[in-house]
Amino acid sequence: MGITSGIVLFAVIWFMTFLVVIPIRIQTQGDLNEVVPGTHAGSPEHHHLRKKAWITTGVSVVLWAIIGGTILSGAITVRDLDMFNRMGQDQSAPQ
After folding, report:
1. Which of 34, 44, 87, 89 is the most buried (most CB within 10 A)?
2. Does 87 reside within a domain?
3. What pTM does this model have?
4. Assigned domain for 86 exists
């Protein structure tokens, strides 16, 4: 895995984690009974994005290390995911 692949993997993990973390403990205007006229009751009042971004970064680093380590160790390869044998025989494996 190259540097660019590692950065892309981290970015994908970070955004997927962020989308999971965003709705956790959000306080909407409807929850607080302070709906501003012209806005939806589901609009966030207190979203705590900075804290959620730091939590997301910490979780993403751990997940990235686990997934990157698995990829670099060769424990799971693309051929392991080839259920229909579309890639053919592995030429580097002894026969």
Report:
1. 44
2. no
3. 0.74
4. no
